Amino acid sequence: MKLIVFLFIFQSAWAQDEAAVSLATSALSSVEGVGQAPKGDPCAFCREGNFGNDPRYGTSLKNHSGPSRGCIPEDTISNTEANRLITSQEITTVGATEKERRVLAAAIKRVQQLNGGPIRGWRGVLSASPPMGLYPWRYYDNHEEGSSVTFHLTHILINRKTNNRNHNRNHHYGHSVAQQVHEWAHYLGYHVGLQDQFQNFMGGNREYGNQDYCMVSNYADNTPGEQFAEVFTAFITEPRILLNNSRTPENCRKVFNFFLTWFPQGERVQDCL
């Protein structure tokens, strides 16, 4: 009798672990074969439209007005909606102004439109793991050279950098949608495995390298991690630069196909073209 009870408990625990792994795996979308268009081609217009000239951004997308504005203007989001969006994604802010929270909410809203809702499991692949609490987005003023805007396992730092000699004095990183998306992309890339999926898609049967880079900006060839963060940001904030790219057009279209397929409602990219 004791043996039967033990086996039942063991079987139940194994089933729960399997369910957790399955749930975690389903939280990350899969992509189709390398170079293939998504089944049913949900965005034929994306392959046929005229998307203007390549802006050939010289520095990271966060420094330029188009990506900084993003697809959803910050001023269309109320403070109440911003609170709801930030909470829905298990994020909290520290030291943020109301406008900075609306900018972050604009980034979250666009990602959720493409994802069909909040990204779940991003705080750790196994969603059955103990709750980690809300993830802090910390804003601060630091005008010293070399001060950084970075992501960490436990938090993201947004240095406003409004007076740094090495940066655009008139550019406020707390007001840049692209800045928020870029740092979130690092977290999703490193800690959820999205960057590995992306590199496997782009590299195919060979090792991923700079021959696979999509040059949406000069900063995009900094490191593989920065390449991923820049192209993810491009798809979220100004997707046309993946379609009108003149430096690495084939790679950038391939990047576009990856995210079009990875996001469950990737066809909504058309809303921003």
Total domains: 1
Strand pairing plus helix content: what structural class? mainly alpha
- What is the global morphology? globular
Overall average pLDDT: 80
Spatial strand order of the main sheet: 1-2-4-3
* Spatial gap, N to C terminus: 66 Å
> In percent, how helical is the residue content?
40-55%
SSE sequence, one letter per element = HHHHEHEEEHHHHH
Q: Count of helical segments?
A: 10
Proportion in β-strands: 5-15%
Structure explained in plain terms:
This protein has about 270 residues and is mainly α. It has one domain. The chain contains 10 helices and 4 strands. It has helices at about 1-25, 45-50, 65-70, 80-90, 100-115, 175-190, 195-205, 225-235, 240-245, 250-260, and strands at about 90-95, 135-140, 150, 155-160. Strands 1-2-4-3 form a 4-stranded mixed beta sheet. Helix 6 packs across helix 8. The longest helix is centred in the N-terminal third of the chain and has 26 residues, at about 1-25. The termini are far apart. Residues about 1-40, about 125-130 and about 165-170 have low confidence and may be disordered.
Provide tags for this entry:
273 residues; mainly alpha; 10 helices; globular
